[in-house]
Model the fold of this input.
Amino acid sequence: MNRSTEPPNVTSIRPRLKVKSPLTLSEEDRRQFVRLEVISPMQLRRLKDVFGQFRAEGEYDLEATMLNLSMSGVLIELSEPLNEGDIVIIRFESIEVGPLEAVPGLVKRCDSDEDVHLAGIQFLDRSELSDHLSGPEFESLPENCCGFRRTVRQVLEQYLCPEAE
Done:
């Protein structure tokens, strides 16, 4: 009799890493981080666009759907385009991943097809964000706007676990 030692809610995805259900994994050899497939509504707003318009405060005025999430960024689908180089603030909550609020990101990739727009957004930590903002802009940011790496890591570590050798 062949008995699996895997718990029923854990899926092996490569020799040294597993992902717990209900999430699935997408990975490519060229990626530094694995990507979790997470279909979830989310909101974002532009913090600073490629034209230099800066808004420290404001409403989350763009609705989007998160398609996948990694330690380095997120792929989203939205109905209006973003520009490569825009700096955005992201907010989302899903049953699978939990809440994330005021996550800064840099739009690295944009693709459009008719009324559907995809954007690849790289998360920024505090030092990276300061590279994209002037001193006064950076100082005017809300306090909760720069601690995403720890939060994203804590959320993802709920679902990723090393495989015993």
Notes: The chain has one domain: 33-158. The first helix runs from residue 126 to 132.
